[in-house]
Amino acid sequence: MRKKVLITGVAGLIGSHLAKALLEQGHDVAGVDDFSQGVRANIEPCLKHERFRFLEESILSADRMKEVSEGVAVIFHLAAQKIPRYGGYLRTLEVNVKGTEIMLECARRANARLIFASTDDVYGKGVDSSFTEESPLVLGESRVHRWGAAASKIYGEHLCFGYAEKYGLPIAIVRYSGVYGPTYQLSKLSGAQDLFIAAALSDRPIPIHGDGNQTRPFTYISDAIDATLKVFETPYADGEVI
User: Fold this and answer.
1) At 32, which helix (H) or strand (E)?
2) What does the pLDDT look like over 138-160, one tens digit per residue?
3) 154: Cβ contacts below 8 Å, ≥ 6 apart
4) Does residue 124 sit in helix, strand or coil?
Protein backbone atom coordinates (compact mmCIF):
# COMPACT_ATOMS: atom_id res chain seq x y z
CA MET A 1 0.00 0.00 0.00
CA ARG A 2 1.36 3.41 -0.98
CA LYS A 3 2.35 5.50 2.05
CA LYS A 4 3.71 8.96 2.70
CA VAL A 5 6.90 8.72 4.74
CA LEU A 6 9.44 11.15 6.19
CA ILE A 7 13.15 10.44 6.58
CA THR A 8 15.33 12.64 8.77
CA GLY A 9 19.02 12.49 7.92
CA VAL A 10 18.05 11.57 4.36
CA ALA A 11 21.40 12.60 2.82
CA GLY A 12 23.38 10.21 4.98
CA LEU A 13 24.44 6.69 4.02
CA ILE A 14 21.40 4.88 5.41
CA GLY A 15 18.91 7.67 4.70
CA SER A 16 19.78 8.06 1.02
CA HIS A 17 19.65 4.33 0.30
CA LEU A 18 16.41 4.00 2.25
CA ALA A 19 14.83 6.85 0.27
CA LYS A 20 15.72 5.18 -3.03
CA ALA A 21 14.31 1.84 -1.86
CA LEU A 22 11.04 3.38 -0.68
CA LEU A 23 10.61 5.32 -3.92
CA GLU A 24 11.17 2.11 -5.88
CA GLN A 25 8.37 0.53 -3.84
CA GLY A 26 6.01 3.33 -4.89
CA HIS A 27 5.88 5.36 -1.68
CA ASP A 28 5.90 9.16 -1.36
CA VAL A 29 9.06 10.28 0.42
CA ALA A 30 9.84 13.56 2.18
CA GLY A 31 13.42 14.00 3.33
CA VAL A 32 15.11 16.36 5.78
CA ASP A 33 18.82 17.05 6.15
CA ASP A 34 21.02 20.00 7.14
CA PHE A 35 24.12 18.49 5.47
CA SER A 36 26.10 18.55 8.71
CA GLN A 37 26.78 14.83 8.19
CA GLY A 38 25.27 13.85 4.84
CA VAL A 39 26.01 15.24 1.37
CA ARG A 40 23.73 16.38 -1.44
CA ALA A 41 25.35 14.00 -3.94
CA ASN A 42 23.82 11.06 -2.05
CA ILE A 43 20.27 12.22 -2.84
CA GLU A 44 20.80 13.62 -6.35
CA PRO A 45 18.89 10.70 -7.98
CA CYS A 46 15.98 11.28 -5.56
CA LEU A 47 15.79 15.03 -6.19
CA LYS A 48 14.65 14.34 -9.75
CA HIS A 49 11.88 11.99 -8.63
CA GLU A 50 8.29 13.26 -8.73
CA ARG A 51 7.42 11.52 -5.45
CA PHE A 52 10.36 12.96 -3.49
CA ARG A 53 10.30 16.23 -1.55
CA PHE A 54 13.38 17.63 0.20
CA LEU A 55 13.81 20.20 2.96
CA GLU A 56 17.25 21.48 3.94
CA GLU A 57 16.76 22.15 7.62
CA SER A 58 17.91 21.12 11.11
CA ILE A 59 15.65 18.75 13.01
CA LEU A 60 15.97 21.19 15.93
CA SER A 61 13.65 23.54 14.02
CA ALA A 62 10.43 22.31 15.62
CA ASP A 63 8.07 24.44 13.52
CA ARG A 64 9.59 23.31 10.22
CA MET A 65 9.57 19.68 11.34
CA LYS A 66 5.90 20.01 12.22
CA GLU A 67 5.18 21.36 8.74
CA VAL A 68 7.10 18.68 6.83
CA SER A 69 5.61 15.85 8.91
CA GLU A 70 1.98 16.77 8.31
CA GLY A 71 0.08 13.89 6.78
CA VAL A 72 2.89 11.32 6.97
CA ALA A 73 2.17 7.74 8.00
CA VAL A 74 5.71 6.79 9.06
CA ILE A 75 8.72 8.77 10.25
CA PHE A 76 12.17 7.22 9.93
CA HIS A 77 14.22 9.21 12.43
CA LEU A 78 17.81 8.70 11.29
CA ALA A 79 19.28 12.18 11.85
CA ALA A 80 21.91 12.20 14.60
CA GLN A 81 25.32 13.46 15.62
CA LYS A 82 28.08 10.89 15.90
CA ILE A 83 30.51 10.13 18.70
CA PRO A 84 31.99 13.50 19.80
CA ARG A 85 35.56 12.22 19.77
CA TYR A 86 36.88 15.37 18.10
CA GLY A 87 34.58 17.99 19.62
CA GLY A 88 30.89 18.85 19.41
CA TYR A 89 30.02 17.21 22.73
CA LEU A 90 27.11 19.52 23.57
CA ARG A 91 25.90 19.55 19.94
CA THR A 92 25.73 15.75 19.96
CA LEU A 93 23.56 15.77 23.06
CA GLU A 94 21.30 18.54 21.74
CA VAL A 95 20.66 16.95 18.35
CA ASN A 96 20.27 13.40 19.60
CA VAL A 97 18.04 14.27 22.58
CA LYS A 98 16.11 17.41 21.62
CA GLY A 99 15.91 16.32 17.99
CA THR A 100 14.42 12.95 18.92
CA GLU A 101 11.88 14.56 21.23
CA ILE A 102 10.84 16.97 18.45
CA MET A 103 10.37 14.13 15.96
CA LEU A 104 8.39 12.05 18.46
CA GLU A 105 6.13 15.04 19.03
CA CYS A 106 5.73 15.38 15.25
CA ALA A 107 4.78 11.71 15.03
CA ARG A 108 2.24 12.17 17.83
CA ARG A 109 0.66 15.18 16.10
CA ALA A 110 0.56 13.41 12.74
CA ASN A 111 -0.70 10.15 14.26
CA ALA A 112 2.28 8.51 12.57
CA ARG A 113 4.47 5.55 13.39
CA LEU A 114 8.11 6.33 14.26
CA ILE A 115 11.07 4.08 13.49
CA PHE A 116 14.07 5.22 15.54
CA ALA A 117 17.67 4.67 14.43
CA SER A 118 19.74 3.67 17.44
CA THR A 119 23.20 2.09 17.45
CA ASP A 120 25.14 -0.83 18.85
CA ASP A 121 27.24 1.78 20.69
CA VAL A 122 24.56 1.63 23.40
CA TYR A 123 26.03 -1.71 24.54
CA GLY A 124 29.11 0.26 25.59
CA LYS A 125 31.72 -1.71 27.49
CA GLY A 126 29.70 -4.91 27.78
CA VAL A 127 32.15 -7.80 28.04
CA ASP A 128 29.85 -10.42 26.51
CA SER A 129 30.37 -10.39 22.73
CA SER A 130 27.23 -12.49 22.19
CA PHE A 131 24.97 -9.62 23.24
CA THR A 132 21.27 -9.54 22.39
CA GLU A 133 18.54 -6.91 22.53
CA GLU A 134 18.06 -7.77 26.21
CA SER A 135 21.75 -7.50 27.20
CA PRO A 136 22.86 -4.91 29.80
CA LEU A 137 23.99 -1.51 28.49
CA VAL A 138 27.29 -0.69 30.22
CA LEU A 139 28.79 2.75 29.51
CA GLY A 140 32.05 4.29 30.60
CA GLU A 141 32.17 7.21 33.00
CA SER A 142 30.77 10.59 32.03
CA ARG A 143 34.05 12.51 31.81
CA VAL A 144 34.87 10.55 28.64
CA HIS A 145 33.10 12.37 25.79
CA ARG A 146 32.88 9.34 23.52
CA TRP A 147 30.06 7.98 25.69
CA GLY A 148 27.93 11.07 25.08
CA ALA A 149 26.50 9.74 21.82
CA ALA A 150 25.70 6.33 23.32
CA ALA A 151 24.03 7.92 26.36
CA SER A 152 21.97 10.20 24.11
CA LYS A 153 20.84 7.24 22.02
CA ILE A 154 19.85 5.26 25.10
CA TYR A 155 17.83 8.25 26.25
CA GLY A 156 16.29 8.45 22.76
CA GLU A 157 15.17 4.83 23.09
CA HIS A 158 13.60 5.63 26.47
CA LEU A 159 11.83 8.63 24.93
CA CYS A 160 10.35 6.31 22.30
CA PHE A 161 9.03 3.91 24.92
CA GLY A 162 7.78 6.86 26.97
CA TYR A 163 5.74 8.21 24.05
CA ALA A 164 4.45 4.70 23.36
CA GLU A 165 3.31 4.36 26.97
CA LYS A 166 1.76 7.80 27.38
CA TYR A 167 0.30 8.41 23.92
CA GLY A 168 0.03 4.93 22.41
CA LEU A 169 2.49 6.00 19.72
CA PRO A 170 3.62 3.04 17.58
CA ILE A 171 7.44 2.95 17.71
CA ALA A 172 10.16 0.54 16.65
CA ILE A 173 13.87 0.81 17.43
CA VAL A 174 16.66 -0.41 15.13
CA ARG A 175 20.17 -0.68 16.58
CA TYR A 176 22.38 -0.38 13.50
CA SER A 177 25.85 -1.87 13.68
CA GLY A 178 28.84 -0.59 11.70
CA VAL A 179 26.91 0.14 8.49
CA TYR A 180 29.12 0.79 5.47
CA GLY A 181 28.63 1.14 1.73
CA PRO A 182 29.74 2.82 -1.51
CA THR A 183 28.35 6.31 -0.87
CA TYR A 184 29.99 6.75 2.53
CA GLN A 185 32.06 9.93 2.89
CA LEU A 186 35.47 9.27 4.43
CA SER A 187 36.33 11.49 7.40
CA LYS A 188 38.09 11.35 10.75
CA LEU A 189 34.92 9.74 12.10
CA SER A 190 34.93 6.89 9.56
CA GLY A 191 34.75 3.36 10.87
CA ALA A 192 37.42 0.70 10.52
CA GLN A 193 35.78 -0.98 7.53
CA ASP A 194 35.76 2.25 5.50
CA LEU A 195 39.38 3.05 6.33
CA PHE A 196 40.46 -0.53 5.53
CA ILE A 197 38.69 -0.51 2.16
CA ALA A 198 40.01 2.95 1.23
CA ALA A 199 43.56 1.89 2.11
CA ALA A 200 43.29 -1.34 0.11
CA LEU A 201 41.89 0.45 -2.96
CA SER A 202 44.69 3.04 -2.88
CA ASP A 203 47.43 0.46 -2.22
CA ARG A 204 48.29 1.90 1.21
CA PRO A 205 49.02 -0.02 4.42
CA ILE A 206 45.85 -0.97 6.30
CA PRO A 207 45.94 0.75 9.72
CA ILE A 208 45.74 -1.62 12.69
CA HIS A 209 45.22 -0.36 16.25
CA GLY A 210 46.44 -2.31 19.25
CA ASP A 211 47.10 -6.01 18.69
CA GLY A 212 44.44 -6.42 15.99
CA ASN A 213 42.43 -8.93 18.02
CA GLN A 214 39.45 -6.62 18.57
CA THR A 215 36.08 -7.76 17.23
CA ARG A 216 33.32 -5.57 15.81
CA PRO A 217 30.19 -6.41 13.81
CA PHE A 218 29.72 -4.67 10.45
CA THR A 219 26.66 -4.43 8.21
CA TYR A 220 26.66 -3.79 4.47
CA ILE A 221 24.21 -1.06 3.47
CA SER A 222 21.94 -3.31 1.38
CA ASP A 223 21.47 -5.64 4.37
CA ALA A 224 20.72 -2.67 6.64
CA ILE A 225 18.10 -1.38 4.20
CA ASP A 226 16.56 -4.84 3.82
CA ALA A 227 16.22 -5.09 7.61
CA THR A 228 14.80 -1.56 7.87
CA LEU A 229 12.19 -2.30 5.22
CA LYS A 230 11.15 -5.44 7.09
CA VAL A 231 10.62 -3.34 10.23
CA PHE A 232 8.64 -0.86 8.12
CA GLU A 233 6.46 -3.57 6.59
CA THR A 234 5.45 -5.46 9.74
CA PRO A 235 3.48 -4.24 12.77
CA TYR A 236 5.11 -6.98 14.85
CA ALA A 237 8.18 -4.75 15.20
CA ASP A 238 6.23 -2.14 17.14
CA GLY A 239 7.41 -1.80 20.72
CA GLU A 240 10.53 -3.83 19.94
CA VAL A 241 14.28 -3.23 19.84
CA ILE A 242 15.75 -4.84 16.72
Assistant:
1) strand 28-33
2) 888 888 888 989 999 999 999 99
3) 122, 137, 139
4) strand
